[in-house]
Amino acid sequence: MAIVINVDVMLARRKMSSLELASKIGITPANLSILKCGKAKALRLTTLDALCKALDCTPGDILEYVPDNEKV
């Protein structure tokens, strides 16, 4: 998939744990892990909004477009 979700990068920048973020945005740690690992097939806008509020960032800080042939 060409969309990368950089939740782990933002967590490191904010020095926040996954459990703390999951609690703040109201999702399970397991679902947050799915987002962090890049295995999510969809992301609700309400979840993206909550992520941005909790991490004090914009959607562009979390979502990144990487063409399939350029994946790391």
Shape: globular
N-to-C span: 12 Å
Please state the average pLDDT score. 91
The profile of the biggest β sheet is: 2 strands, antiparallel
Counted beta strands: 2
Strand order of the largest sheet: 1-2
Strand content: 5-15%
Low-confidence stretches: none
Q: What does the oligomeric state look like here?
A: single chain
Secondary-structure topology with pairs:
Layout lengths: L2 E3 L1 H8 L3 H8 L3 H9 L7 H11 L3 H4 E3 L7
Antiparallel strand pairs: 1-2
List keywords for this structure.
mainly alpha, 5 helices, 2 strands, 56% helix, 8% strand
Kindly summarize this structure in a few lines.
The chain is mainly alpha-helical. Helices cover 56% and strands 8% of the residues. The longest helix is centred in the last third of the chain and has 11 residues, at 45-55.
